[in-house]
Design goal:
The protein has helices at about 10-30, 60-75, 80-100, 100-110, 115-130, 135-150, 155-165, 175-190, 205-225, 235-245, 250-275, 295-300, 305-330, 335-340, 350-370, 370-380, 390-405, 410-425, 430-445, 455-465, 475-500, and strands at about 35-40, 50-55. The chain has about 525 residues and is mainly α. The chain has one domain (about 10-240, about 250-500). Strands 1-2 form a two-stranded antiparallel sheet. Helix 16 packs parallel to helix 18 (about 410-425).
Amino acid sequence: MNKLKKKISLHPIMTFIILIAVTIGLSGLLNLLDFETEIYSINSTTLEYGRSLVSVENLLSVEGLKYIFSDTVSNFVGFAPLSTLIIILIGIGVMEKSGFLKTAIKTLTKKMKKNTVTFLIIFVSIFASVFGDLTYIVLLPISALIFKYGKRNPLIGVVASFAGLTCGQGLSVIFTSVDSSLLSISLISARVIDIGYRIASISGVFIMLVAVLLLAGLLTSLTERVIAPKFGKNETEKEEELEEEEERPLTKKETRGLIFAGIASSIYVLIFLYNIIPGLPFSGNLLDNSQILYVDKLFSYNSFFSNGFVFIVTIFFVILGLFYGIGAKTINNADECIDTLGHSLDGIGKTLVLIFFASVFISLFRKTNIGIIITAYLTNIFQNVNFQGLPLILLLFVLSAIATIANPSSISKWTIFAPVVIPVFMNAGISPEFAQIIFRFGESVTMGLTPVMAYFVIYLAILNKEKGSSVGIGEAISYQIPYAIVTMIALVIILILWYIIGLPLGINGMTVL
């Protein structure tokens, strides 16, 4: 049996403390050295260029120290992964404690091959990235449970699911609110060259679909051939192997529980769907009707759907677990029902401490502007090169991947990249929509390799919980490096083939002008 090699690594909390200290010290040093750069922007009305100077915020200054001491608590309380994790864990706890997850997972996967289950988890993770950051909170713990109840090490499920979520970050088959924002930035930048230029919302659907399917297959093969053998079997697997008992059929209580859960959840889903459909009597209550595009009505910051989606999913999970428990007689009274609500929150203290130090590091790093300045420096490289064709494509891909390590936000990076990159690409005969796809592909490679990405700490926390011992930041990243390499090779090949052959990117979307 292959076991994980023991690695000498710092506890992740200690690593975050060191990163915090380094960030504070580095901000002072870079400020002293006048580390700054210009960022180009385009006025959406006049289409004229503007420039702004961005410098490093010194956290060792009086103002910087005031920020550290006055904003640390509010930054922690407002740290998105914290509240989302706690709320979602309530729903997952009900499903797990009632027995719903164990019964449902075993029923769905008992006749599936191991690699089929792995493929489905990775494919769903890649595809689900279009629904935003909530998918990290939902899929990582559930993937761990799927592997656990499938008699495999749950760590494999966590690593594979996180790889799917991050490597699929820029592969949007469905047009999302992020795509809408990026498209708006691309159009403004393109109209500097061609005032009448238009980009369809589905202009990249063909290349995205191919990338999703190819990547799901490759990451599944990597998981089964390379990643899974590195992990030893957990204690649950060993005990179940010793029992050597045949898979028993569902009992009448379990069947009744699944039926109750199915009926109740179906009613809930129908009510929910009715409330995101516009134009019907009393429908569309969860939409932001001040927006024009449906995707913006659904996912805008002011929509009830977007603001309440975490709670909507949690209630769905509670309904599944609660009605299963009632039907299967695993929940018999109100006291047992209340106990299930806190099941997943037992022993969460270490996770909260880990999230606290991660939130401090991320907020301080963003405050310094280091990530923005690095992105701007990389963008300005395009003003000093005369590349055409494939070299230009590969340059954007590589610089996007590098920038993502320091600045994971897609919109923030593209706001800086697009005003410079898109005119350069258009003058080289390459379409703006292809430039945006290259940018998205590049950031998919390194999204899972940076602790600056807010949801990296959720991946780290669940790894520590499932392993039962410390998993350092370096170790957690090392699991993702093979996925990043495979993703890079696959996406580069797709881009090169699409450009050379001249295939359409999607409907009304081409690689060249």
